Amino acid sequence: MNNYRRDLPAWGISLLINGVMLTAFHFIAWTVTSDQPNVEIVSVMDDVVDQESIFIDSVVADAVGTDGETLMMAPALAAASVPQAQQAVQEKIEEAVNPEIPTLVEGDISLPENTDFTATFTDNKGTTDSISGGAAGVMDRMTFEIRQSVKERQTLVIWVFDASGSMKERRNAIAKRFEKVYEQLAQEKATDGLYTAVMTFGEKVNILTPEPVQDTKPLVSMVESIPDDTSGKEMVFSAVGTAVEKWRTFRKNDGTWNKMVFIITDERGDDFDQHLESVIASCKRAKARVFTVGNAAIFGQKQGFVRWVYEDGEEDFIPVDQGPETAFPEGLQLPTWGDTSDWRLNLMSASYGPYALTRLCAETGGMYIVADDQGRGQKFSKEIMRNYSPDYRPMKQAEEDIRKNAAKAALVSTADLTYNEKSGIRNLPVPVMVFAAYNDNVLRQEIVEAQKPVAAVDYDIKRLLQALEATEKDREKIREPRWRAAYDLAMGRLLALRARYFGYNNMLAAMRSSPKAFEKKENNEWRLIPSDKVDSVDVRKISEKAKKYLQRVVDEHTGTPWAYMAEKELRLDMGWSWQESARPVPPGMEGNNLADEDVARLLLAEEEEEQRRRQMAPPAKPRDRPKL
Q1: Do residue 343 and residue 430 come from a single domain?
Q2: Element (H, E) at 161
Q3: Structure pTM?
Q4: Which pLDDT belongs to residue 561?
Q5: Average pLDDT of span 12-33
Q6: CA atoms of 212 and 252, how far apart (whole Å)
Q7: Which among 445, 443, 439 has a CA at the least distance from the CA of 593?
């Protein structure tokens, strides 16, 4: 036997050993349990096309602005269906926020109803294409897009016009270019497979061409004679949905057809919350690309202004819904103390179109063309703003991303509160800066009245700050420039506001406790003026932290709206000092021995006299403002 093994070849020994091992493994069962849940991946994306956002330097006719009103999409992070991996982040926010501000920050983002969360999005980098020339420039770009489409295959172009009065000039300017556009296409033999349809929208959707046509000459007068819709409603998404469904299967000849929808408007549409997701899905099924010629959204705002000229030539600016540029609120709506005259802060262009229309264009492979005239607010370089593109993914995806970072979630929650019209933060009282000091009792009485609203405001500001400060560590995990700029600016502005209110209250308390003596005997009035001197240690710490955040915004985000607002905050001193002056003394206020009830009575009489004088002034003639 020993001789047999010795004479056995090496390969035979190897075969024998491996055979024994395989036989043993055959009888061993391994069971592997996965911790990962079964995931169903669903998509309604039929066709993916690269897209761009195009930004035009010049406009057809109207002005863009805002009065700083509330954001339409005022969401809060929904607590339901939170994945385990994200639950800890949400609990961290709630633990830090809820005990301190139970009634002010809820920590939830509510999403619009009927939202299709299965929609996908082709990444949009927000690239820009500068086009000049007003209506001519716009139509040249449209001509290019139509020409490219017709080269590929037969094409149906659907023009969807906003029928509101503010759009009349723009509609006519574009209509006048119709004939030249189609003549140019005809010269290039690009109209054989081209059909055109026209419809309008306001409160209702109207189809002007029951069937698409090839002869476009009648379209010019058809568009110019569109009657103004005076309802003040813009059902743009209903119009696009109607157009796509009506002509989804349209074809005059065999073969594949392209479909292009051109929306001409100056607002964001009133029905996006009901129909945005379903219209996106319809457009994808029909392979219809959507293009919009509209106005830029106002930075962080819902409303803008459109210039309106009355028959007598008087000019007015009518508020219209033109934003926001983001799905969720990212910026706190806070006043700039001491600089209320600068309306430009609320008129800055976002450099992007409103979220809903821009997303519709991006999802369908079209583009949003910003037709923005000279504007009335600050403007920013398109090249710089390209790096600060809003998130155009479906809201559910964006929400999940926000949920993963406590700093983002806290920012959205606090910003949402400042958009509330009834919020104390939104309606901060204008602090009294001038105090009559005919005698010490008068001065104390005025200080008491001035301090009453400040105490409540300071409390609200502290609670908002606690929400953001509790998540400061997660701020370092934020990579997107837009979110970093928004978080730092929110912290800086809140801290600056806190420093000013806190310092203001301290100055009043000290003066009330021990009134200062005038250097000049003829003076009888004290004024609080901004100062770079801060006596209080607590106020100094807050102001130094505010400057740190604001300066970081300026340094890291130069040339953006965030840096512009941070610079304005830094130009305003955060401390206070007293300045004395003189005013006429009302009868009965002489002397320093008046009782408190006498002071109150005399101040009331002075206030009533002022009201009487105001009532005698002729009232301004009321205007019947149009609904645009």
Answers
A1: no
A2: strand 154-162
A3: 0.72
A4: 93
A5: 57
A6: 10
A7: 439
